[in-house]
Specification:
Length: 542
């Protein structure tokens, strides 16, 4: 059985309200706005008079995935995880399971009706087909975000810094080593690469801080205890514009004069963590990313973003060949990268015949959990002339949240919280997508990269399949070389920082056989889930 939701004051009423067979959604007593999940303030009028409202329980499917991978011992695949929009409001959606039909029968536009299943003290709202004709209205709509906020002044804090040093530990599957040793290895290499000493470092910044699940070495406190740098400023946390939001924080600290050289680092050791079987499912699910999805077996991000991919493919007529172009390109590039985990050639037949994970994603649509650490040093711009290697300037960053920070309530046509920061990036520079020589875009799943390509304006919404030209346009010798290192799909999931490392390596012209010819400008994106962030980098001599 999947984890049941914790019955906390904010949402206990929702999980128990199905006892009488009626679906209830939070509504504003003043303006009538319905909202889900429950929040203490109405997002429309900001009033605090809210209460549960009865709704019809009728809905239509706006995204779905047939989960094939077994994540939970007592929940046998295949089963369907779906996002449904209730009849009363296009803006209110629930992640749920579709029951009462074969998984292959579920599709976007299908009309469904709620049915409750009691599990202990919780009534889970599941949905089953009504058999009626499909919904003809567009319940999602084309992406239509507000314009990004304009810069507050001509000054750009990005121009006060350079990226002066990079370092990386060894990368591999199940290295079975202390993750802190990976971090210190990468950090000391980055310090040396910048021509600095540990005594020069006066700031530390990391993502996501002290967390479990093999996603951190212990954060700033562990690294400081190991290296004894005595920083005047430090930062660690997960509420940032992508993993490399830690670098944005460092840039702000340098620009403000708090520091001169900030050491940024990111470490993962997921494969060893899993091998040692250190994790386990909690008894009850809490939090925005678990309470509303885990009870329906949506345990993996593969299932979450697959529902956006299904809406995209339904809307624009795209096929798995579009996703394959991203995976095959990454593998071809990884063959030139001696540090990549997967370097063996891959064909379209290999891609298509691989086992499914969560439709439309197969094995090669998903990145590779690994162990490794990356460090990047942010220095004051006036240090550029003293560096032993070419300084890399930050032309602009994209950070704005311009949509719901949610996997099911906001953008359904693309990865959530990609389109906002992507558009924001171009408001902070005179450069355009035509000026970019290469792209290092987050590819935790193939569809992530599709979302960033379109969000950043390299092609229009829904145009990626034709634009990719079966991968020719993004090849190493194409118009826009994408992820020359292989990305997370083939090099390994260094969780964002690997893209920044590769972009800097490319702009320094140190990438060896995978070097993009005369690379001078690169775009980088990270995130993989709400929210994301983007960088535009260039050589200091460009």
């Amino acid at each position: 059985m999947p984890p049941l939701p914790a019955l906390i004051p904010a949402s206990e009423w929702f999980w128990k309200s199905g006892a009488d067979g009626i679906l209830r959604i939070q509504g504003c007593d003043d303006c009538g706005t319905l909202v889900h999940p429950p929040v203490p303030v109405c997002p429309t009028c900001r009033g605090s008079a809210v209460s549960p409202k009865e709704v019809s329980g009728r809905a239509s499917v706006v995204g779905y995935t047939v989960n094939v991978q077994q994540w939970l011992p007592d929940m046998k695949p295949p089963y369907v995880v779906a996002v449904v929009a209730i009849e009363e409001s296009d803006d209110v959606r629930l992640t749920t399971n579709i029951v009462g039909c074969e998984p292959a029968e579920v599709h976007v536009g299908q009309r469904v009706q709620v049915t409750f299943e009691q599990r202990e003290d919780v009534w889970l709202p599941l949905f089953e087909p009504t058999g009626e004709p499909d919904e003809t209205r567009d319940r999602v709509g084309e992406p239509n975000l507000p314009a990004p906020r304009a810069p507050l002044s001509p000054r750009r804090f990005e121009h006060d810094v350079v990226l002066s040093g990079i370092g990386r530990s060894r990368i591999g599957r199940r290295l079975m080593v202390d993750p802190l040793s990976l971090t210190t290895d990468a950090c000391l290499k980055a310090i040396a690469d910048a021509g600095l000493t540990p005594e020069d470092i006066d700031g530390l910044s990391t993502y996501p801080g002290t967390v479990g699940m093999g996603m951190s070495e212990g954060g700033v406190t562990s690294v400081e205890e190991a290296l004894r740098l005595r920083p005047t400023w430090f930062n660690g946390g997960g509420d940032l514009p992508g993993q490399t939001g830690a670098v944005v924080q460092a840039m702000l600290a340098v620009s403000a004069g708090l520091c001169r050289h900030v050491l940024c680092f990111r470490t993962v050791w997921e494969s060893t963590y899993r091998e040692l079987r250190l994790g386990g499912m909690p008894g009850r699910a809490t939090g925005l990313n678990t309470e509303w999805r885990h009870p329906f077996g949506a345990i993996s991000a593969a299932s979450w973003i697959a529902m956006q991919a299904s809406q995209y493919m339904h809307r624009y007529g795209a096929s798995r060949e579009m996703l394959a172009a991203i995976a095959l390109n990454g593998r071809a590039n990884a063959a030139r990268n001696p540090d990549a985990i997967y370097r063996a050639p891959m064909t379209m037949d290999d891609y298509m015949s691989a086992r499914l994970v969560s439709t439309p994603f197969g094995l090669y649509d998903c990145d590779i959990p690994c162990d490794g650490s990356v460090a990047v040093i942010v220095s004051a711009a006036d240090a550029a002339s003293d560096l032993p290697k070419t300084a890399i300037k930050v032309e602009a960053v994209g950070t704005q949240i311009n949509e719901r920070v949610s996997w099911d309530q906001g953008t359904m046509t693309h990865e959530p919280v990609v389109l906002g920061p992507a558009a924001h990036l171009w408001t902070r520079t005179d450069l355009t997508p035509a000026d970019v020589d290469l792209a290092c875009l987050y590819d935790g799943f193939t569809f992530n990269a599709i979302s960033w390509l379109e969000g950043l304006g390299f092609c229009g919404f829904g145009e990626a399949q034709d634009w990719l030209d079966k991968g020719q346009r993004i090849a190493l010798d194409g118009d826009l070389p994408l992820n020359p290192h292989g990305g997370q799909l083939s090099e390994g999931r260094l969780h964002g920082f690997g893209f920044l490392y590769e972009a800097i390596t490319q702009l320094r012209h140190e990438a060896g056989p995978r070097q993009v010819a005369d690379a001078r400008t690169a775009v980088v994106s990270t995130g993989g889930g709400a929210p994301g962030g983007a960088f535009l980098l260039r050589r200091a001599d460009s």
